[in-house]
Amino acid sequence: MSDDPLAPYIPRPDARERFSLVVRAPAHVVYGVATTFDMQSVPLVRGIIRVRERLLGGRARPRVSTAFLDELRSLGWACLLERPGHIVIGGASCQPWLADVVFVPVPGAFQTYAEPGRVKIAWTLETIADGPERTVLATETRVVATDPAARARFLRYWRWARFGIVPIRWLLLPAIRAAAERAWQAGSDSASGGASSAPG
After folding, report:
1. What is the pLDDT of residue 63?
2. How many other C-beta atoms can be found within 10 angstroms of the C-beta atom of residue 139?
3. 54: CB partners within 8 A, 6+ apart
4. 80 within some domain
5. Is 4 inside any structural domain?
6. Least enclosed by CB within 10 Å: which of 13, 40, 57, 147?
7. Which one, of 139, 100, 147, 146, lies nearest residue 122 by Cα?
């Protein structure tokens, strides 16, 4: 895997954010938890989403408990690449400055997609092994506009919207870390218990 997995999709972004932290659990455990995590189970994340809806006059969506990847697919994100246990890359086209954003999947032509007045967004969810029980959990998001007018509109929107979107990442990654470490500890405790109870 390249050190820059988003380069084939958005090599020169208009906006880019990357966050990472260390999880004390194996990469396959972290990946499994991250891809099935219910991001709206974090109250502050849910609150930020509701605030955006109110500020832009969007429709309030009912709260449904959904795994992370399933929720994103239901919203219109396409899976551009997945290497299970290591990385998933999602992408879509949209107009994020609208109150009710519609994500359009363009998986087969993401790199060349250029419909005017829109932006393309690609993101990663990565688990990078840093030892047998230590993983770097990372996510990166890139945005590029399809034309100068869309770029200007997006950058105006991003000047204030990033103060809600970036904290979602700050909240989600620690929540995923806590869930993954709990899952790994529970599995380790079960294995230890099973071994200690076995006849000698």
Report:
1. 60
2. 18
3. none
4. yes
5. no
6. 57
7. 139
Neighbouring CB atoms inside 10 A of 170's CB total 13
Write the DSSP symbol of residue 199.
-
Q: How far apart are CA 200 and CA 197, in angstroms?
A: 9
The single-letter DSSP state of residue 139 is E
| 32 part of a folded domain | yes
Angle in degrees, CA 160, 111, 92, rounded to 5: 45
Secondary structure (DSSP) of 177-196 = HHHHHHHHHHHHHHHHHHHH
Q: Which two tokens stand for residue 113?
A: 């997609």
In which domain, by residue range, is 75 found?
A: 15-186
**What pTM value is reported for the model?**
0.84
Number of domains in the chain: 1
CA distance 178 to 145: 35
Under 8 Å CB-to-CB from 83, ≥6 apart: which residues?
1
Place of tokens 């995923």: 176
Residue 192 lies in a domain: no
Domain at 97, CATH number: 3.30.530
DSSP H helical ranges for the chain: 27-36, 43-56, 68-75, 148-196
Q: With a cut of 50, which residues of the chain have pLDDT below it? A: 195-200
